[in-house]
Amino acid sequence: MGRGNGGSTEIDAINILNASFRAMHRAVDALIVRPEHLLIDGNRFLTYAGVPHTCHIKGDGRFRSIAAASVLAKTHRDAFMRDLHDMHPHYRWAVNKGYPTLDHRAAIERFGPCEHHRRSFRLLKEHVELS
User: pTM of whole model > 0.70?
Assistant: First the structure.
């Protein structure tokens, strides 16, 4: 699920990890000032041309800049999930934030998936096909 560039369609096409790398590259592309070094929260990253990087597992606990970015990302995601909830309240995205809770899976089984569900993600035991 996502806004603008990317989202569920892109994730389905290139997988969640590569979509994350692509999103991080888009974020760097959008900066006015070119960074000297990228701190990555995690254990891998696809090199951004001309900018060195360092990966840090649990980097949000070690670097204030990564922690701040994590807070901003969560705030943005929560707002996005509330917007999705307003469009599709039966999935209860304002409560489950897109995680496949039993309640969310029951809603998918009852109402079927919508355009914001990833086609490549196994939605239910008996995989529900998107039309």
Answer: yes
